[in-house]
Each structure stands twice: as C-alpha cells, then as structure tokens.
Design goal:
The chain is an alpha/beta fold and about 375 residues long. The protein has two domains: about 5-20 and about 265-370, Aspartate Aminotransferase, domain 1; about 40-265, Aspartate Aminotransferase, domain 2. It is about 40% helix and about 15% strand. The protein is built from 15 helices and twelve strands. The strands form three sheets. Strands 2-8-7-6-5-3-4 form a seven-stranded mixed sheet, with helices on both faces. A three-stranded antiparallel sheet has the order 9-10-12. It has a two-stranded parallel ribbon with strand order 1-11. Helix 3 (about 45-60) packs parallel to helix 11 (about 250-265) and helix 7 runs parallel beside helix 8 (about 170-180). The radius of gyration is 22 Å and the shape is globular.
Amino acid sequence: MDLFGRYKLRRVINACGKMTALSGAIVLPEIADVARESLNHFFVLDELQAAAGDVIARATGAESGCVTACTAAGITCSIAASMTGNDLAKVLQLPDASGMASRVLIQKGHCVNYGNPITQAIRLAGAQAVEVGMINRCTSEELCHELAKGNVAAVVHVESHHTVQYGWVKLPQVVEIAHTAGVPVIVDGAAQDLRLRELIDTGADIVITSAHKYLCSTTAGVVAGRKDLIDAVYLQNRGIGRPMKAGKEAILGAMAALEYREQQDIAAWTAEQDRRVRLILDRLSDVSGLELQVDADPNGCPFSRARLTPDPGVTCHSAATLRDALAEGDPTVVARAHHTEEGYIHLDAIEMTDDEIEFVCEKTRSILTGRT
C-alpha cells in the first residue's frame, strides 16, 4: 500500500533517531503482529491494563505499571496521582487542586521543551510547577529548602541529554532527599527504555518511558513504579486523564515490546548499531573538509552516532546549510540537528537501512563537493 502516493506525502529517511515529530519508531514485525491482532477483538480495558501491569512489573523490576497515551500523558497523570492518591472524589475535582498538596518541584535545568514545556505538563494536572535553583546550578540545599516549605506533591526529575548536564542534583540523591521529606519522585525517562531497570533501581516512585522509541512499538507511554501510585495514575482515566487514555493496540503493543525486550540480545543490537555507524564513516571518510567522529549516546544508552562537522571554507556549507540541503527533495533526509549552532550534525543510523545509509552518504557527498 502506497500511503505516500495516496495522500501526497513525502517519503522520509530518518537519520535523526527516535523522534515524535517523525512519528516515533518503525514498529518491529513481532510487535506489529500483536497490535494488529488486537484490532480484531474486544477487551475489558481494566483487565487488559492489569495484565499490562504484570508485564511491566516483570520487565522493569517495578511493583506495577500501566499504559498511557504517551510519556507526556504519563507525566501529567503521574502528577495528578501524586495529588489525589486513590481518592476518586479528588480525581473528579482536578484540575481544581483546592485542599491538595499541589507544589511540584523541578530543577530549573530540567525545564525542557520536548514538543511542549514539561512545566505545562505539570500545570495541566492543576499543580504549580516550582523551578528550583538556576539554569546551570541546583544544589541539594535548595531542594531541601523548597521541600521544607511543605505542600509538595512530587519532585519531577528529567533524564535526558536536553537537560543541563552539570551543576545539578543527580537522581539517586534526589530520591534520597525527597523520600526523607515523604515526597515521591517522578522520572521523565521518555527515551530511556534501555535504562528502565537502572532508573527503577534508584528508588524512584514512578518512571515513565515511551513505547514508540527504542521499544519500537505503537505510540504509548509505559508508566512503571509503586503500586499505590500506579493505581492512582490509572484512576485518572476517570478524570483529567480521560483524553490521554491508551487504546487496546497501544496497550498490547507496549506489552509485546516489553516481552520482546526481555529476550533481546542487547549486545548484538549494539554491535549492529556500531556496524552502521562504521558504514557511514567509511562512505564519507574521503570527503574533503568534512570532519568525522563517533559520539556515544549522551544518555548512557548502548549505541553511538556519527558526527559530521563541515568546514565552511572548504565545503561552502555550515552544519545548518548541510541540514537544510539534506532535507530538500523527496525523500527528505532528516538529520539529527541539535548542535548546528556548534558547527555539527549527527547521522543516527538506528532507523536507517543499509540502502538508506548509502543514499544519505551519497547525498551528503554531493552537497559538500558540489557534484551531482
């Protein structure tokens, strides 16, 4: 079926990685088969979510879990859960937070925008986002000071390369400080599914990740953590979480993805990603004025990317103009361009086939050498 021709859409070669703006991941056949089969049946959603909770608990080491529409939905519902607990009257009252603890602490350097501001995801629950510290510095003393003021529902911690990478309180210490004050910690780990067990093992009360990134599933958020809080997250489906509920294909897709991950050979997967990166380097190593290197994933996940730094004096292209030239045409090539102002782009090979890598490298060569 040619969806591109039918709806007059451009084809995309994804050299950027697991990005929501590019529709998430290519869903693996083993997972797509389960999601597709789910479309043929009815389920009691409470029973389906309970089964998902069992799979999430086994796969992550958490007490329980549930599935939401996406990570952003999981953040808002988890904030709401920390405010309402399992009191349905409070669930129905939100976003009016009168009479509830409603201050949610977040280090200022973690106030990222992942498509919308994370502080907005907090406010959607009716909570007040309290930014702690400065952009490039947050101390444990400042965190303790805000906790001591009281009325704190939760502390939100973001595990992402988009956060400031120095001068902040690391997750294990955040958990220790928050728990001393009797406050739960909610972790936004949208692209951290390869580190799920590690994040759960810090003692964080809720960890949320995307099913549609490295888990290669249908769009969903996987919420793992303390059973009483997970029950409260799911209860939000009867309140403000109703527009954020997951459908059967999202729930069963996430379950299949976690089961696939349990038996996946991660070392072999990493070796395959390394091979693809080497292929990029091999194909571009002789392009004059192009500096190449390999950058490890800044989040600590087990793969790397190819970094391309063009010399404008030789190639007549900056990182920004190379990004733009790659994006022209059909198929469009979308590079990972978080660092264009620093003079380089990345080619992320995870979602590219060898043929697509060859195409991208040849197009890059043509752009930088002026040859067609």
